[in-house]
Specification:
The protein has 17 helices and no strands. With 429 residues, it is mainly α.
Length: 429
């Protein structure tokens, strides 16, 4: 036993520097490329958004935009149409290198979606670009399946970190979304390194991330904790509703329209008519101005629901983009609306909803708590952590990523519910 300790120490001292050098050398180019791609994406997204808002008539062409996206994916992207789910599937069961065409296709599709007035986000685009770029290194360097798992995590980490400006949250999100029970602790090292490199690489370009502020944080008391838990349950149910609705619309479009390129055409017609009927563009696109507004002005109770329906219908129809920024919108506006009945500060309610709905929909409470700390500061840590944890518990077992595997305590809890109720299937989102 005494002889074993020196051997272990020697092994560590000889192998760890090589391990660190290997992943550092891979993190630098991956982080730079993904961060630069995110910067290009954010700049382009800002441009098409401003152009659409100055040329509202473009919304009438949303069916045409849907046709273009549908045809592009039907003829050039059938093997990447699964998007984020393809990355999750390759992590769980490696089969083939992620085709690089995923990156330009999702970038093009997302920009077209936003140019013509679809309601979508940006996280999915950044994650897919990050995964496709990172997996190139698997091919170039002939990496093993074990190393490829790390590469995919690094791609996701770099994408989330750079597009939101939250490197720590991006690093943890990549691990957590893959299911922490299936990843090794040392994966965190390359995930953190590449996240910071990607965030820094994006920041060197003239791209500014949106800043949000929680202006008042009361002392944590039993009463305030009670109100927080009540709000968090609603945030979790909102996440549940979002996930169920996006899967519902996706299923119905596939069921009734056999030819994929026609699905976003019909979806585009409906969305354009709804926007015309509403008389406002507040609920399409990213919705960042409304998110910022929710931290200072109480939003109407229907705001979150309109954004939820428009986003899930947009994505279910086959338009491209992410879910996370719309989830921010839904959470922040729901929290803001609760200010009318919950005696907690408006900005705190908006901030809790902002990250808690995201937590529930993606099953990533730890990453979302860290994101809250990076975006809002550490003063409200207890409120943010409690909101994310409770929302996560009340959001079911199937989130926005259908290929995500939920295990651990939450999986066990819902399996017990299934057993006790005699249900033949787990509760679905």
């Amino acid at each position: 036993m005494d002889n074993l300790k020196p051997k272990l120490a020697t092994t560590f001292l000889t192998k760890f520097p090589l391990f660190l050098a290997k992943w550092l050398l891979l993190s630098l180019p991956i982080g730079f490329l993904v961060g630069s791609a995110s910067a290009l994406f954010l700049w382009s997204l800002n441009w098409v958004t401003n152009y659409r808002e100055n040329h509202i008539w473009l919304i009438a062409l949303l069916p045409l935009g849907g046709l273009i996206i549908g045809l592009a994916y039907h003829y050039f992207g059938e093997n990447v149409v699964k998007g984020n789910n393809l990355l999750l599937e390759e992590f769980n069961s490696p089969k083939q290198i992620i085709p690089f065409r995923m990156a330009p296709l999702v970038l093009f599709g997302t920009l077209v979606t936003h140019l013509f007035g679809g309601s979508a986000g940006r996280e999915g685009t950044a994650v897919q670009m990050g995964g496709a770029i990172a997996d190139l290194f698997t091919k170039w360097f002939g990496l093993t399946d074990a190393d490829r798992k790390v590469i995919l995590i690094m791609g996701i980490s770099a994408g989330v970190a750079s597009v939101f400006g939250t490197p720590l949250a991006g690093a943890v999100f990549a691990l957590e979304v893959m299911a922490l029970t299936r990843v090794k602790l040392w994966y965190l090292i390359p995930s953190v390194i590449v996240a910071f490199v990607a965030d820094y690489s994006c920041a060197i370009y003239p791209i500014a991330h949106t800043h949000y502020h929680i202006t008042e944080i009361p002392d944590i008391t039993f009463t305030n904790a009670f109100y927080t838990i009540g709000c968090a349950i609603l945030f979790g149910l909102a996440a549940l509703l979002f996930s169920k609705t996006v899967h519902f619309f996706s299923t119905q479009f596939k069921r009734f329209i056999a030819y994929p390129p026609l699905r976003p055409v019909l979806g585009g017609v409906v969305i354009a008519l709804v926007v015309w009927a509403l008389g406002t563009t507040k609920y399409i696109g990213l919705g960042v101005p409304t998110i910022v507004e929710a931290f200072s002005i109480s939003e109407p109770p229907y705001a979150f629901l309109l954004k939820l329906l428009l986003t899930t219908f947009t994505l279910g129809a086959g338009f491209k983009g992410g879910e996370v920024t719309p989830l921010f919108f839904i959470g922040a506006t729901l929290g803001s609306a609760l200010f009318m009945i919950i005696p907690l500060p408006l900005s705190l309610l908006a901030g809790m909803g902002f990250i808690a709905v995201f937590s529930g929909a993606t099953h990533t409470p730890v990453a979302c708590t860290i994101m809250g700390l990076e975006l809002f500061g550490t003063e409200g840590a207890l409120y943010l952590a409690l909101a994310c944890a409770v929302a996560y518990l009340f959001s079911g077992t199937k989130g926005i990523y259908s290929s995500q595997q939920v295990g651990g305590t939450k999986g066990y809890l819902y399996s017990k519910i299934k057993k006790d109720t005699g249900s033949t299937t787990l509760p679905e989102q």
